[in-house]
Amino acid sequence: MIKADHRPLYLQVIDKLKADIESFEEGQKLPSEFELSKQLGVSRATLREALRLLEEDGLVVRRHGVGTFVHSKPLFSAGIEELHSVTDMIANAHMKPGTIFLSSSLHEASEEDRSRFNRPYMDAVMNIERVRTADGMPVVYCMDIIPKELLGNHSIHETKSIFRFLQEAGKWIDYAITYIEPIGYHEHISELLECNAETSLLLLKQTHYDVNDEPVLYSLNYFRADKFKFHVVRRRDM
Questions:
Q1: Which residues, 6 or more positions from 111, have their beta carbon under 8 angstroms from its beta carbon?
Q2: Which residue from 20, 168, 201, 230 has the fewest beta carbons nearer than 10 Å?
Q3: Is 198 helix (H, G, I), strand (E, B) or coil?
Q4: What is the pLDDT of residues 194-225, one digit of tens each?
C-alpha cells in the first residue's frame, strides 16, 4: 500500500509500481486499472497519470482496449548518426551475430532503381533477403539491393556482412541517408522475426554512399522495436 509522505500521490504510485514491475516478466500484463487502483487505494485518474509517466520512461506500454504490459528492455542501443552494420551492432552488444539466408536474385532494374542509384542505363540489380540473428534469436529482417555492375567477379557469401562485401569490391561506404518508419505487425516479416501481434517494428530505409558520393547500396531493415533502441545527438548551430 502507499505510504503517507509529502510527495504528490502519483509519484508514490510510480515508486510502488516500479517495485512491483521488477517481479514481472517482460511482456507480462499488469492487473487492470480497476484492480490496481483498488490495491493502491488511489483514484483511477491518479493511477493513469502514474502509468502515463511510466510509459514515457519506457517501463510499460499501454494498448488501448487491451491493457498495460511490462515493456521489453532493448538489447541494442545505438546512435542513429553512427553508421554501423547490423553485424557490428550485434557484436558490440557482446552477442554472436548470425545470418539466416533467405534468397538472392537478379531483377531487371526499375526506373526507381535507376533513379535511386543515379545510373540511368543500369540493367539489373541484385536483391538479397536475410534474417539477422543475435545468439540465435532473429532480430532484424534485411532486404539489400545492389547494382549488378558492382558485383563483378565477387560472390556474396551467405553469412558475410554486405558492408564487408562492398569493401572487397572496392566500394567503401562512407555515409547513409536514412528514413525511419514505425510500423505495426507485418504478416510476413513479423513471423520471420518470431514477433507476437503486439510487437512493432522499426523500418530503416537507407541509401548508402561511398567516398565519392556514389550510391552503392539500398537497404530495407526491419528491426524488432522491443530489441532495438535508436537515439540521435542533436547539436545547436552556433
A1: none
A2: 168
A3: coil
A4: 988 778 898 999 999 999 999 999 999 999 88
